[in-house]
Amino acid sequence: MIPLDIEAAQKGSLRQLADDLFWARFDLPFRLNHINLYMLATAEGWVLIDTGLNNDITAQHWQALLTGPLAGKPVCQIIVTHHHVDHIGYAGPLAALTGAQVYTSAAEAEHAKWLYALAGEDFGNLLAETYHRYGLPVQTVKAARTDGSRYRRNTASLPEFRLLRAGDEIKTFAGSWRVRTDKGHSDAQISLMDRERGLFLSVDFLLPRISPNISADIRDPDFDLLSAYFTYLEEMIELPADMQIFPGHDWPFRNGGVRAQQLIDHHNHRLDLLSAAAQKAPLTVWSAMDELFGRTFGDHEMYFASGEARVHLNHLVSVGRLHKRCDDRGIDIFKAQDVVTA
Ligand SMILES: [Zn+2]
Fold first, then answer.
1. Among residues 260, 267, 265, which one has the least CA distance to residue 311?
2. Domain-by-domain residue ranges, the chain?
3. pTM (2 decimals)?
4. For residues 66 and 89, what is the distance between their CA atoms, to the nearest angstrom?
5. What is the 155 CA–ligand 1 centroid distance (Å)?
6. For 105-127, how does the pLDDT look when each residue is reduced to its tens digit (9 = 90+)?
7. CATH code assigned to 15-125+150-264
8. Sequence-distant (≥ 6) Cβ neighbours of residue 118 within 8 angstroms
9. How far does the centroid of ligand 1 lie from the alpha carbon of residue 62, in Å?
10. Kind of pairing, strands 21-27 and 15-18?
11. How far is the centre of ligand 1, averaged over its atoms, from the C-alpha of 151 (Å)?
12. Separation of 125 CA from ligand 1 center, angstroms?
């Protein structure tokens, strides 16, 4: 997508995007090397939207903002859009620093608490079992078992959450932002739309450059999350072309409907690739990863790539194009449906 002509602000300062909307870009130590955080100016004070990963770089960046451009008004509310570490990681310390209440959706709060409660050993065992089911190499399964919790590594102890629901509104002096919750990239991500002014904080569900990661959940690896994401994208096709969209990564853009259609096509292409491959030989998640990505992975990428491959296989099962069975080693095998002839 073509970026809007708005540059990200330098570290420690904000870029104004609308009368009541501001943008900061925080560094991340991943291949996706930044996250966009947003702030709304309201009569009661600042509403902070997402918090960054729990590390020193995030702490320093928040310190610079809270003593700099945000210093004039109190922080009255923190919204965590979803439970992923780059959005929720620093929520606890930020709540302590500002005294503000933290809000998220019920499903995101539940998922965060469940993940955070898993000790390193339990997380490792669950991931190793999942990787085994996926047919990943033995050394990958072994490494996962002793690697501890990737969630706790990047997330400070969680704050108390208050709940936001779809349809709730956040009023500012300039407009009214309506809460949506959607399932796909996560369980019930909060996004905010001011339809009247044509502004949409889409966070991680509609991104201009990369395709949002849609991954099977390690506690429910059979679930067809892609169906939910397709439902979201079908709705997004109808977005007004001139609506400004503010995503969780990369840059602000327009033509959200075009982007939604591109993402539908992208996932359908992946589904077709896997379906065609399964006609030749049954697939595991590992061999599906080869079909989709055709390259080797680091640990961080392994987690997302295997989840992504699995979710596409799950969707093919739920629409009847593949069926799944577990072999005698405990590995899930996906086979093309046998053609029934009369
Ligand atoms: Zn995310």
1. 267
2. 15-125+150-264
3. 0.95
4. 18
5. 14
6. 999 999 999 999 999 999 999 99
7. 3.60.15.10
8. 126, 149, 151, 152
9. 20
10. antiparallel
11. 13
12. 23
